[in-house]
From TrEMBL:
The gene is lgt. It is an enzyme of class 2 (transferase). Keywords: Cell membrane, Lipoprotein, Membrane, Transferase, Transmembrane, Transmembrane helix. This is Phosphatidylglycerol--prolipoprotein diacylglyceryl transferase. The chain crosses the membrane at residues 20-37, 57-77, 97-114, 121-141, 176-194, 201-219, 239-256. It is found in: Cell membrane. HAMAP family: Lgt. Catalyzes the transfer of the diacylglyceryl group from phosphatidylglycerol to the sulfhydryl group of the N-terminal cysteine of a prolipoprotein, the first step in the formation of mature lipoproteins. GO terms for biological process: lipoprotein biosynthetic process. Its main location: membrane. It comes from the Bacteria.
Amino acid sequence: MLTHPQFDPIALSIGPLSVRWYGLMYLIAFVLFVVLGRLHARRRPELGWNAQMIDDLLMYGVLGVIIGGRLGEVLFFQPGYYLQHPGEVLAIWKGGMSFHGGFLGVLAAMWLYGRRHGKGFWQVTDFIAPLVPTGLAAGRIGNFINGELWGRPVATDLPWSMIFPWVDALPRHPSQLYQAMGEGLLLFAILWWYSASPRPLRAVSAVFLIGYGSLRFAAEFFRTPDPGIFGTLALGLSTAQWLCVPMIIIGAGLLLRSRR
């Protein structure tokens, strides 16, 4: 059994300037997006992407992630808290970013990018899909360092179960690390391999939706559910799990359509 190290949320201080681990993880995610994007463009030159286009994509994506992710957290998961503490809505350095909100924000940003640069929406999403999971992994590691989104109590003894002292003395699943490995590294490996060869339009985007939705759905069984607007919903599933269901269904539909 392990105990959470209770990291200092500040990674580095230079005079009055403090760099928090959570922000550093986002920086790592954005750097990985650019590096992997350029590698992907070089291995698939027929897709017609270059370094400048990837840099522009990043700018659009950053805005989509931050605005959508924060709005998703505020509206989907903790509306009551932020109604009582409106001054914390902009305090993203403390954590609290919804993937589903960020996902919708990125979709809107990618649609806008495509409109302004002459790229089809699915061309854009097929290109960026393999670049996203490493950023998700970095975000989950940031959650772990921040000590947020802890797991459910373990039913049996596990050598990697972890006590989060500020919660209680129960050994719990380190669900942040499960998600970093699942929807982060495993999903990256699947998509990086799948996108290495020519695929029908929409297919790579579809595999991302199916893969993320399935892996996140499974991970929620080990994670203490976020409160959500409705808390735990029908069939005992969490808000996040029900948000994953349409992702999987839409992904399956897109994959079938792409094969036709």
